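Exam revision sheet. Question 4 asks you to relate a sequence to its structure. Input first:
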Amino acid sequence: MDELYNVSHCVCVGPGAIDRLCEFIVVKVEIYVYLYVYVYVYVYVYVYVYVYVYVYVYISAEKLHKKLIEAKLPFEACR
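Answer key, structure tokens:
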């Protein structure tokens, strides 16, 4: 067994078949890690933006509602 697997640099060295299998595993792991990070970041950003927009719209609607009530009060008092 003269194959060598260097985990720190993701380099596989050894006889042909083992070398190709090792490269395949490393590439597959890299793809899964990339997809996991991509999905995690996408979901995190999506949730963050959704919550931010929801809170911003809710606060803006409350302020607008309060202004509308304050604007109507003098007219209702004249009736």
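Marking note for examiners. Helices lie at 16-77.
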